[in-house]
Amino acid sequence: MQLTPPSAARSASTVAAAGEPRAGLSRRTDIAVRTLQIVLALFLAIPSAGPKIIGHSVAAESFDEIGFGDWFMYLTGGLELAGAVALVVPILSGASAIALVGLMIGAFITQVTVFDGQNALTPVILLVLFAVVAWVRRQKTVELVALVRWRV
Fold it and tell me: Is the pLDDT of residue 11 over 80?
């Protein structure tokens, strides 16, 4: 049984000091990706999740056309809001980006099959941006998995 968390057991060569980008990630890249995470989180929380969570008529009409009704609209809005919050929490950022890639795959499929591809490019662009965040923050995902395994 391991008595210390994985983060404490790692050598200093693999993990940068707290608050600094990990080894191999330039400061400029780290700042650019953090900025991207904030912009994506704001987009997800306000114009995307907001209308779904408050049940705005435009969002309700779209989800009625999908055929799943209000419960799916609220679920989707809740997932987007949770993803937006997790995207700006450092330890959750990589895992959140991966989950949001999955959400965008579903949004793309829905746009193509239900709405004849009218706005199919939007989820594709977001998917690519979330994939970039997931790739750059992959070490955070590894740390999260190690932390969860250590506690179990």
Answer: no
Helices (H) and strands (E) in the chain, counts: 8, 0
Helix 27-43 / helix 70-87 crossing angle, nearest 10 deg: 160
98-110 pLDDT tens trace: 999 999 999 999 9
Given pLDDT bands bounded at 50, 70 and 90, which one contains residue 18? very low
Q: Which residue has the tokens 């000091």?
A: 17
Residues 6+ apart with CB under 8 A from 50: 56, 77
Question: b/e for 20-40, b at 16 or more Cβ within 10 A?
Answer: ebeeeeeeeebeebbebbeeb
| Burial bucket for residue 85 (CB in 10 Å: 0-12, 13-18, 19+) | middle
Scanning the structure block, which residue is given the tokens 């949001």?
A: 100
CB 55 within 8 A of CB 75: no
Residue 134 has pLDDT above 90, yes or no: yes
Distances (CA, A) of 107 to 18, 70, 100: 36, 16, 10
Whether the model pTM is above 0.70: yes
Q: Which residues of 58-71 are buried (b: 16+ CB within 10 A; e: fewer)?
A: ebeebbeeeeeeee
